[in-house]
UniProtKB/TrEMBL annotation:
Residues that span the membrane, as ranges: none
Coiled coil region boundaries: none
Name of this protein: SEC-C domain-containing protein
Length: 410
């Protein structure tokens, strides 16, 4: 089954993304203006809600599952939310992991406010959707503010029991993100069963799903689909499931708990020997920063999981680099082929093509007979460019506010 993305479609997508850049910047500016307006501190919940638009209030209602409120006017909806959010806030707190718990603790210690420097917009908006904290500007500084009513609830239940729940939630989230990093797509029951085995404890399925839903909204690492939970990089969950079903004899690769916790970290890269060889090879020719190397390796892993051939990866690298010679590109192609055959794939349930039996050797990537096409730009330098470079950590040109890698770039 050919799961490779059509080349024309990819090039059209790159062109569309480039054209959308200016529009994206305009949307980003509007989002910034809306979020970062003057706010009085300390604030109560009513004041915080009145600063929001009707659409933002509706997102809170939808996120927290408040029914029969869609027909209310803005003022009426605020009156309802002022009562409903505190009533549900205890349950919201019980979905916290270490990051959100620490943020709430900092707000509690600082009269409900913390500086928002370094907190991405998509996380800020998630905090708003859950009614946890609200953004604003105070004394020319961007801040996040937890309303007084909610601070009092958090203060009442904070303690050893909550800290234990936070540790459990953090482990659940990291393990789940790690499983999906390697397997791509899994049903909630399958993940829950694996987590029970890894932790040695029975995880309540309803509680687990609640924790995962909040984490998915906040981190954007996990997405819910018709096929269960999926890694944010997955392009087509159905194709992955179909490919996995074609190999009933291939079981999930047995990762250790520590391997999965490590893979559950944001922007994790499994530095295999094949990848290390490729990096050393690139550094022989180019002066690349750690950030640039990580960017390239993350994108190459994504392309491998989309079952792209090494020639497409050469074209991607050509959007970053100028190739000095034909022989260099030939050797680079060999290094990429080795990387493909030693990278864990979603369709192989976390195995590498090289690890599987002879039946699975068809997934090994051969050296292409014509591995590359070069456009000569002068007598000594070759350059193959497929379109403007969009970094994985750049804001997505679609205007979602998320990073490109977590939106259209997945």
């Amino acid at each position: 089954m050919d799961s490779r993305i059509d080349e024309i479609t990819q090039n059209a997508l790159l062109e569309a993304l480039e054209k959308a850049k200016d529009y994206s910047r305009q949307l980003q500016e509007k989002r910034e203006q809306r979020l970062w307006r003057e706010i009085n501190i300390p604030c109560n919940l009513s004041d915080a809600l009145r600063r929001l638009s009707k659409n933002e209030l509706s997102k809170i209602r939808q996120t927290l599952g408040f029914k029969n409120l869609s027909s209310l006017k803005k003022g009426e909806l605020i009156c309802k939310l002022v009562n409903l959010i505190p009533a549900k806030f205890k349950n919201i707190i019980y979905t916290f992991d270490r990051e959100r718990y620490s943020l709430a603790k900092r707000m509690l210690k600082n009269k409900g406010c913390v500086t928002a420097n370094g907190i991405p917009i998509f996380k800020v908006e998630s905090l708003v959707r859950y009614g946890i904290a609200f953004p604003g500007v105070h004394h020319d500084q961007k801040i996040l503010c937890m309303p007084l009513e909610l601070m009092n609830i958090f203060k009442e239940i904070d303690g050893n029991e909550l800290e234990s729940i936070v540790r459990r939630n953090t482990e659940w989230i990291k393990l789940t993100q790690g499983l999906l990093y390697y397997y791509g797509v899994m049903g909630a029951l399958s993940i829950n069963k694996m987590i029970n085995q890894l932790t040695g404890q029975e995880a309540d399925l309803v509680g687990y799903i609640g924790v995962l839903s909040a984490a998915s909204d906040y981190y954007g690492q996990i997405m819910l689909s018709a096929y269960g939970y999926q890694d944010h990089r997955v392009f087509d969950a159905k194709k992955i499931i179909d490919e996995q079903k074609m190999r009933p004899g291939v079981h999930y690769y047995p990762f250790t708990k520590q391997q999965l916790l490590k893979a559950g970290e944001p922007d994790f890269i499994e530095r295999t020997p094949a990848m290390s060889k490729l990096i050393r090879f690139l550094l022989e020719y180019y002066d690349l920063s750690d950030e640039e190397i990580n960017e390239m390796m993350l994108q190459l892993i994504d392309m491998i999981n989309l079952d792209m051939m090494p020639t497409r990866m050469i074209e991607y690298l050509g959007s970053w680099l100028e190739f000095p010679s034909f022989d260099m590109v030939r050797e680079l192609t060999a290094k990429l082929t080795e990387l493909c055959n030693h990278t864990r794939m979603w369709i192989l349930k976390g195995h590498t093509p090289n690890e599987l039996s002879q039946e699975e050797k068809k997934h090994l990537k051969p050296m292409p007979a014509e591995p590359f096409k070069l456009n000569q730009t002068d007598s000594n330098i070759y350059n193959i460019r497929t379109g403007a470079k969009i970094g994985r950590n750049d804001p997505c040109p679609c205007g979602s506010g998320k990073k490109y890698k977590k939106c259209c770039g997945k």
